[in-house]
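Thread title: Can someone regenerate the structure for this chain?

I was given the following input by a collaborator and told the matching structure tokens would be attached. They weren't. Posting the sequence so someone can regenerate them.
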Amino acid sequence: MFADLERIHARPRPFEFYTASELWTDEYTSAQMLAFHLDENVDLSSRKTAFIDRSADWLIGHLGITSGVSVVDFGCGPGLYTSRLAKTGAEVTGIDFSARSIAYARDQARTMGLEINYVNQDYLDFVTQDRFDVVLMIFCDLCALSPAQRAIMLGKFRSLLKPGGRIVLDVHSLADFEQFSETSRCELNLLNGFWSPEPYYGFLNTFKYGEEKVTLDKYTIVGRSTTKTIYNWFQYFSVESLTREFSQAGLAVAEVFSDVAGKPFDAGLDEFAVIATRAQA
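Best answer:
Regenerated them for you:
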């Protein structure tokens, strides 16, 4: 038992383990995540509906998304942005790891009479001959990826851009990192039964890595017959550090905002958003 507790509370190296599939492809937890996506009053899987409405309107206006403009949304979930953007007549593609979310998005597109190309795939593996005017990755998805994975994604973004195309994404800020504190707790059916329909004890250990500007939510779920561990990593950025990563991928940050609804930049807020283009040769 002591050895088990040591493993539960052990501090891994930054991004040592990656368990995205446990969250997005598991039959039970993917249903939980979809429910959070569709709850317009919570900011867990997606932002609240009022913000998404405001954000989509800003993206459409600021980027000139209209008929004939091609858009790809990485981590599209159940189509909350893609459906709004497709109503402009834009040619929209959405990619997501969750088969449940993609199935919902496809059903909604049919109901609304929208032609949207949905792809059920880990976006790290996504390959296409298509090129796009706008590349989106919203809700700080980039922050969940390791440095090596981020390099893959940014290189992919660059290759997918049409001439003059733009990338829009948001990330967690260093101001948010500074507020983070390490904690440890154990509860019966942690998070109100989110992790399993059967009774379980859930351990949550949070770790903060000062030099790397990374945090980890480590969940260990102990059921009657199985134990599983889920690692939710988060990378935090300054404008300067994100700009360096973009530059290394041949991209240039062109505009900085506090969010993907166009709020003016404020370094003291928890997140910020950028619009980037291919770097000039």
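The chain has two domains: 2-9+177-234, 27-173+236-278.
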